Prior knowledge:
Elements: E1 6-15, E2 26-37, E3 40-46, H1 47-50, E4 58-69, E5 71-77, H2 91-103, H3 109-125, E6 128-134, H4 139-151, E7 155-159, E8 161-162, H5 175-189, E9 195-201, H6 209-221, E10 226-231, H7 235-244, H8 251-257, E11 265-269, H9 275-284, E12 287-290, H10 292-297, H11 305-311, E13 314-317, H12 329-342, H13 349-354, H14 358-363, E14 381-384, H15 390-396, H16 410-427, E15 433-438, E16 441-442, H17 444-454
Amino acid sequence: MKNRPTLFRASILHFTSSTIEPDNHASYYHDGALVVEDSHIVALGEYQDIHVQYSQSKVQDYRGRLIIPGLIDSHLHFPQTEMIAKYGQQLLAWLENYTFPTENKFVDRRYCEYIAQTFIRELVSNGTTTAFAYATAHKQSVDALFSVASQYNMAMITGKVCMDRHCPDYLQDSPQSAQEDSHALIEKWHGSGRNLYALTPRFAPTSSPQQLALLGELAKQYPSVFVQTHLSENQGEIEWVKDLFPQHKTYLDVYDHYNMVHSRSLFGHCLHLHDHEWERLAEAKANAIFCPSSNLFLGSGLFSLQQASKYKVNVALATDVGAGTSFNMLNTYGEAYKIGQLQQFPLSALHGLYMMTQGPASAYGLDQDIGNLNPGSYADFVVLNPQFDALSKLRCESLLDQDITTEKSREQKSMIGADILFALSFIGDDRAVEATYIAGKELKQTLQEQVYAMA
Length: 455
């Protein structure tokens, strides 16, 4: 038996479909209505047009707030949750001194479960409803994250990190065990509920050609499975790849040789690419993942939005926790904006929203379920309060009170929502997220209450 629908009244901003011009294609409802039945959205539009049809619905009044789709974080490391704000070093030293010792703790199943709960609570608190997360080399870390996400009907994409060389013995697997473990985890979790699997070689230097070949076989066997890895994050890393794979022309060519460059491939960072690497990413419809906070923190370099735009490469935003210093995707957009400014190629707030909602959802073939507020999608959405404290109230108090006339264009109307997003990206934090709904259920308050009950 279905539950009575709930009508959420608020200002609403989203993208209905993929576009190469996000600034001109956002849909904005100043006095909007979003109707949810069970776990899915059933209607969206102006309140005056919808409320009569759904007059028997429960009403959740969020006037004065802004509803946006649940945010998609396309690259972060679940076991590095406790490592945020460790003293910054360059990438390879960071891995050796902090990452590998921390990931060794995940040999303990109970620790996996504890960090998985903490990780998902942080995501939800910051409005992230879908995550592409790296686990560790331990199968139980994958089981723990998928299990906790399943409790909340959350869309989670993760996979066992595969490394058979150039890492501590306590984290090494082998070509055969990486393939066997990944195969078993795919069979167990991929497509179970909202869970999806990602083959996860950490990066080319820590996988032998034999391991990459066997993982590439799995990629062929399971074309709906994702591939997530790192590409051209650090100059020292790139030189290392040249030494380890002298037969390949470029870093991307290593992955391409092993059937890992396609539309469900997510390449973290992509900071120092050759033109023909950009061309290949575009040709394969593969995805470059822009991690601005992490790139600045580790001193890795500046992502070129201009090059990505020139070659029409799919780009998504990501926090890259724990080298990234916040779980907050709006703050992450703020860092991306600064990087664009340094390169005289600024990133608008609407484009930033697109790169963490509809854009990646479309690129990954998931836009029927996530990334937007279209009827039929899962009811994953975020309620932003643009007046959550005195400063934000001063900055935003007039925006949602504006008189929106029919003479204003869609673009003019959507700029009100864009201005709120832009402000919150710099002066906001998790307090600006008043509520996070996943599959129609409000979870931010629920998870916070669980913490208080345990204290």
